[in-house]
Design goal:
This protein is of the alpha/beta class and 493 residues long. It has 19 helices and 18 strands. Helix 3 (52-63) crosses helix 4 (80-93) and helix 6 (128-137) crosses helix 8. It is globular and about 85 Å long.
Length: 493
């Protein structure tokens, strides 16, 4: 175990870290920080959720001269959500040094960003497209950058940002320190390291640490038409505190969120088509527990630091194994256990095997619960609610009415009626979910190729697949096999 106080970190930064509640450094932090403080170029191989923001952020903040008006640190991130998250964390860590941090990304008013640049930030965190836009407008001066970070480099490769990154790197002094973080190390990323880094030191988090051992992983074999009812029953039986449901396309996310609401769950969806304000609003509600099911595409949830997630449901199996690792990494954090359930159609079983080979962990098959088991699950939840109310013992104002009920009725009937009232009985209201085509076995492991490059100007990616999510298929009624008349679906391009 390595404590932050054991690492070469200044008192001002340590004070901020302690105030944030952190004492023990993660493996990527303890491996990276000492080398980085020495000025070494570093390649860090680590997944989201391993603490890499602090791993590159602390050494960068240590080098900042807060009295200077120059931009001294630059962080390139694949999505606006990650850019915002990184800038917020750096602001907290650097607060006692009074370091100014600014995030810039597509979808936000560029004139507002230009005005913010004039307030002399010390660190810029941005998406490639918007950073290049500022460079071309000459509103971003990088002549004094001492530290450059490429965060989630493999993700930026998948999104078609490599050319943009190379253009940005040419505008940063060659004497800078470069830190590159990536979950995987494909060829083009290694080439960037060779061209733009100086004798980099590699710090790699072991596979077993990257896949998070304290997550129970299950798969549910189900036909497309059965999946939503199975999901509903699982939610009823498992009663998750906070859950994320992953869908393959934006349309899928919209339909699932709407269907879950119809069935009585507090659910909302998040994907790249939502405005920035809407996305931040949904995430705020999720973090505060005002919604208990978040439905998301890979892109929208990638890089988000959401604590307290107890269950992850992969409604659609992801197109590449790395995305699976990122998805399930939303749960089982900070030493807590988590559960991940992946829905697999019979034609997609090959994908399951590829995922298991990547994670080096075999998933356990989970039998879908029956309707009666779902009801029993909700009844158990009602019993727990009653027990919790009894333990709190703030019932004095209700005891007079309780005695009246007991005098007029059998005690067993009174308790049974209370449980029936508290039980959220399974809802079978028909819902429309457009069927998705199963993944083609020809696309094994090639998930990155299906992401649209023309989304890069927004600093994000569509989350859809090349087929547009089977837009020509008819929606089905979850309780009937007869297709209903389709509404005009919004395409996922």
């Amino acid at each position: 175990m390595t404590l932050f106080s054991d690492l070469p970190i200044s008192p001002a930064i340590l004070k901020s870290i302690k105030r944030m509640g952190f004492e023990e450094a993660t493996p990527i932090q303890s491996g990276t920080i000492p080398l980085s403080v020495e000025g070494r170029d570093i390649i860090g191989q680590a997944q989201t959720g391993t603490g890499k923001t602090a791993a590159f952020g602390i050494p960068m903040l240590e080098k900042i001269d807060a009295k200077s008006s120059n931009i001294q640190g630059l962080i390139i991130a694949p999505t606006r959500e990650l850019a915002i998250q990184v800038s917020e964390e750096l602001y907290k860590i650097g607060s006692d040094k009074r370091v100014r941090v600014l995030s810039v990304y597509g979808g936000q008013d560029i004139q507002r960003q230009i005005r913010a640049m004039k307030k002399n930030p010390h660190i810029i965190v941005g998406t490639p497209g918007r950073l290049l836009d500022h460079i071309n407008r000459r509103t971003l001066k990088l002549d004094n950058v001492q530290t450059l970070v490429l965060d989630e480099a493999d993700e930026m490769l998948n999104m078609g940002f490599i050319d943009d990154i190379e253009s940005i790197l040419k505008n940063v002094p060659s004497t800078r320190q470069t830190l590159l973080f990536s979950a995987t190390m494909p060829g083009p990323i290694r080439k960037i390291a060779e061209r733009f880094m100086s004798n980099p030191e590699t710090v790699s988090v072991k596979t077993k640490e990257m896949t998070v051992e304290n997550i129970e992983q299950f798969f549910v074999k189900a036909h497309e038409r059965e999946k939503f009812d199975v999901l509903s029953r699982l939610l009823n039986v498992q009663s998750p505190e906070l859950a994320i449901v992953f869908g393959r396309t934006k349309r899928r996310v919209d339909e699932l969120a709407r269907a879950l609401e119809i069935r009585g769950y507090m659910a909302e969806g998040i994907h790249g088509d939502l405005t920035q304000a809407k996305r931040m609003s949904v995430l705020k509600k999720f973090k505060e527990g005002r919604i208990d099911v978040l439905v998301a595409t890979d892109v929208a949830a990638r890089g988000l630091d959401i604590s307290g997630v107890t269950h992850v449901y992969n409604y659609d199996i992801p197109q590449d194994p790395e995305s699976y690792v990122h998805r399930i990494g939303r749960t089982g954090r900070a030493g807590k256990t988590g559960m991940a359930m992946t829905f697999v159609t019979p034609r997609e079983m090959n994908y399951l095997r590829v995922v298991e080979q990547t994670t080096k962990k075999k998933m356990t098959q989970l039998r879908p619960p029956s309707s009666s088991e779902a009801l029993e699950g909700m009844q158990r939840a009602a019993v727990e609610s009653l027990k919790e109310a009894i333990e709190k013992n703030n019932l004095e104002e209700y005891k007079v009415l309780a005695r009246e009920l007991m005098n007029e009725n059998d005690a067993l009937d009174v308790i049974a009626a209370a449980l029936k009232t508290l039980t959220k009985e399974p809802d079978s209201t028909p819902v429309d979910i457009t069927p998705e085509k199963p993944l083609s076995s020809k696309k094994h492991g090639g998930g990155g190729k299906s992401y649209r490059k023309d989304d890069k100007k927004y600093g994000n990616r569509s989350g859809g697949n090349r087929s547009g999510g089977g837009g020509g298929s008819k929606p089905y009624n979850s309780r009937q096999r007869t297709p209903r008349r389709p509404s005009t679906p919004r395409q996922d391009g």
